[in-house]
Structures are given as C-alpha cells and as structure tokens.
Amino acid sequence: MTTALYTHPASLAHVTPEGHPEQIARIRAIEAALADMDLDRRDAPMAADSIVLRCHPQSHVDTLRNSVPEDDRLVQMDPDTWMSKGSVEAAWRAAGAAVAAVDAVMAGDAANAFVATRPPGHHAETEKTMGFCFLGNVAIAAKHALEAHGLSRVAVVDFDVHHGNGTQDLLWDEPRVRFVSSHQMPLWPGSGERSESGAHGQITNIPLPTASDGAHMRAVYEAEVFPMLMDYAPELLIISAGFDAHRDDPLAGLNWTTKDFRWLTERLCDVADATCSGRVVSCLEGGYDLDALAASVATHVSTLKERGQ
Ligand SMILES: [Zn+2]
Questions:
Q1: How far is the CA of 191 from the centre of ligand 1 (A)?
Q2: 287 by DSSP, 3-state: which?
Q3: How does 116-131 read in b/e, with b if 16+ C-beta sit within 10 Å?
Q4: What's the whole-model pTM score?
Q5: How far is CA 166 from CA 33, 147, 207, 243, in A?
Q6: Rounded to the nearest whole angstrom, what is the distance from the C-alpha of residue 166 to the centroid of ligand 1?
C-alpha cells in the first residue's frame, strides 16, 4: 500500500498580509520538499457542509461565507486570522482533505495519509476563527471517523508547539475521542493546562517548558503518551502535525530538530501498528521557518511512507 498525499491549488489562493507567518510560501516549500517522493497524490475535495456541521454551528459557516471579500482586499477575522477571496474554498478543502484521508485509510485504499493544505485548523473554536484557523480540520475528521465509519475509539495527537485549543473545544464533550496535545507553555494561546481534561477525562494536555529540547519531549512521550495510547488502543490515529517546535521556528521557543520529528513519527507509527493496523492520518498545522518546515515535513512524510509499505 501507499501513503496518500492530499494537496490542492486552493491552498495557494488563501492570501495573508505581507510578512504574515502563515503564508502561501509554506505550501510551496512543502511541495518542493516532497516533489521527488513517490506518493499517491490526490486532490483535496471540499468538505460537505453536513460534515462541517458536526463540529461548527450553521452560524459559523454563515459568518465565514458572508465575510468573503469580492475583490483583492483582505478581511481581518480576528487579531491573527485574515480572509481573502480564496480563503473559504481553501478552508473547506483543508477540512475535506482530512475527511477524505480518513475515508481512504479506513477503506484500506492507502496505508496512511498526509494532508498538506492550508489554512491550518487546530485553533478554530466552535464558533470563532482563531490563530490562522477557520475550521477544525482534525476534529471534523475525527467526528467523521466516528459517524461515517462507526468507530468508537479515535486518538488525536497534536504535537504542534501551540496548544490545540480549537480541537479541545470541538471535542470537549466527545467521549469517543482521546485528544492529546503537547505544547510549549507559557505560549499563545495560553490554554492547555494539565487541569483541562475534557468532560469525560478524555483530554490530556502536556505543557512543555520553554527552551526544552527533543530529549525532553522523547522522555515525556515515552513515559506518558505512548503507554496511554497503547492502553487506549485507538482504531485510528489522527495527527495534528505542526512543525513549529523546531528550534529554528520564529514563533516559539522549543528546540526540537528534524530528527526529533522523525523519531516522534516513527514512535506514533509504532503505536498505530500495534493498535490499528498502522492507520494514521496526519494533517499539517503550523511550522513557520520555511527551511525547517520543508525538512521536517519531508522527514515526517518519508517516515509515513516507509512505515506504510
Ligand atoms: Zn503552532
């Protein structure tokens, strides 16, 4: 079997202001890094509204659609999130790709999948955009796995350097999803304390100290995350793959290296191999130093490919 790679030109039509870290160049850097890799390349489809509405109310969908500018102006949705005329299609394709990746992996049509789209999703809350995000792509994918594929245990692991506050909000009351977020603390958005554990104790937040490195991360994941996931035995593992814990990233202060992303990907694949026939769906979140992002995504996807064969 193969590793599916979901992309779409719509990701290049979501425009942010000059100098904004969440920029079109991120996707171009990733596409260049993956250009020579033998992957099952697929177009990201639009998510059906019925699928989006499992996580967001109609009012949020309406707000997004009603905010689309007709010309080349940019609309500021919140302090960090901007909308251009191509943003809504890009957001719907980012969510749709995550859903399609779940379908492909559950059908055995791909061993695992990586979704290389933007905007990212893990900061979008039920009824608000936040932190460059419009729709909760990973939470939408997890709900789809439950409702369309009849799963009862889905794990979502978020290793982006920022807390996955949106995913936490969307899955707060969902007992069938185990959500784990590791993130630098203190750091924006400020949530993600250990005491935030979900309505059913199904959420685990792991704050990592500023300036901590990959050795610290590895020790924490070995001691806490992997045993918990093995015990949980998910039927599907979804990853919120942000690469901004890299030491070169300009938005945060952890000191992971490209090798740490390889190690973490391998160990997460170990968990998936042991519990769910290797079914992994990984979705791009952050990562803002273009060289570090490209190298980290390349090692992440090449690891998925090696493990999916
Ligand atoms: Zn981030």
A1: 13
A2: coil
A3: bbbbbbbbbbeebbbb
A4: 0.99
A5: 29, 20, 16, 18
A6: 12
